[in-house]
Amino acid sequence: MTEKPLHLYRREGAYIPRVAAVHDLCGYGKCSLGVAIPVLSAAGCDVCPVPTGLFSSHTAFPGWYMHDTTDMLADYLAAWKNIGVEIDAIYSGFLGAPEQVDRIRDLYGMYPNALRVVDPVMADHGKVYPTYTPELCDAMAELACGADILTPNLTEAAIILGEPIGDAWCGTDIGDDEARRMIDALVAKGAKHVVLKGIQRAGESRIRNFVGGADMDVVEVSNEYVPYMLHGTGDLYASCLLAAVMAGRSLEEAVRFAGDFVHDAMIVSAQQPEFEARGVSFEPLLGKVCDLLK
Predict the structure, then answer these.
(1) Which of 52, 136, 138, 212 would be a feasible disulfide site paired with 218, CB 3.0-4.6 Å?
(2) Strand partners for 66
(3) Among candidates 137, 134, 178, which has minimal Cα distance to 154?
(4) How many CB atoms are closer than 10 A to CB 169?
(5) Model pTM?
(6) pLDDT bucket at 139, cuts 50 / 70 / 90
(7) How many Å is the maximal CA-CA distance in the chain?
(8) The pLDDT of residue 2
(9) Euclidean distance between CA atoms 56 and 182, whole angstroms
(10) Is residue 1's pLDDT more than 70?
């Protein structure tokens, strides 16, 4: 183990790194590519989207429409290869079908030295998201085990580990030992670094995230708990974390930055009309992402 700051990406001079963002695109409701593109761009990254699905709105709204892009992705990525696109990080989130995991593996083969960041977006509070089949959850779990940075919540971590979810996992109250056990188990399955998100203990007004890996001690980072739920905060957290990493910050610094940014964005969001349906508002805070490059 080492106590030295762990840097997973070294920013070199004026070079602008390219990030393949493998996420869905949502027309209304702030999440996925609608979050990843502006946040990573503000951190001085060239964001190259790989759309895994097109949504009319996020799925908390009734009557949403989804277009599955699976059939186009092989040709889409082959065209990248044909023109010599270079990629420094591969960041995946929401997936629309199990076959899309194969396309991410194609990207890993095309760019073997790229940083692999997996936000295993599939469940929360003991419930799997409505578009996720058991086959897609299994495929996501396999993908997660090859990540350089894996960012699950407790329910997603349990799915990846093959542990039961449901009523017992509707809460987020676990102790330090259990958090460390889950991180160690995910590392044992192949993830190099794990950020376990969203732990809130009974009677506390803090929300905790834990980060650990094969080459670092487990560190706890906490923020004030904001007592309302907003769609897109998980995407914002993972995007901010990667933004900080690609700006050359250490992994622990990135975890702290992401937690602080999401907390502040939730405060800003509450000032907007219909904020709980609209999703997380982060736009006025993008200057903080730009400041990562100073």
Answers:
(1) 212
(2) 55
(3) 178
(4) 21
(5) 0.95
(6) very high
(7) 56
(8) 44
(9) 35
(10) no
